[in-house]
Task: structure prediction
Amino acid sequence: MNNGQPIIETQALTRKFKKTLAVDALDLSIQPGELFGLVGPDGAGKTTTLRLLAGLLDITSGTAHVAGYDLARQAESVKPKIGYMAQQFSLYGDLSVVENLLFFAELYDIRGAKFQERMERLLAFAKLTKFKDRRAGNLSGGMQKKLALACTLIHQPGIL
Result:
């Protein structure tokens, strides 16, 4: 999906929580391959914006398109295209590193040889190969973050 179309585009994107205006008429256009960061003080709406773009929150008003999908009508279609790792990513502490990866892979119907190849590549990338049988709850904080990133990447999303 390129043909000059933005991979993410919003117009007057707004999100309210009761009387609190969290995102106020955000206009944004991000091209495929572009590296983009949201920077601002606490409470500026960065996390809310990312959750909106990941299809995890409903839009109050305005429009947002991600990977060609209208988030107001097609939020579920966006989820396989995007990798979103929350600040407090929830791993399953009683599951091993491999079991956590398998759980997230199955959410995206990644199985068999495809899962095995991706898992091995991500374990090597995150330097978790020798810890693959360790329970996630027994990993250090940094290793848990690396596992969370591997789980976010297991379905090879085009947008991170």
In short: The first strand starts at residue 8 and ends at 17. Helices lie at 46-53, 71-78, 97-107, 112-125, 141-153. Strands lie at 8-17, 20-30, 61-66, 69-70.
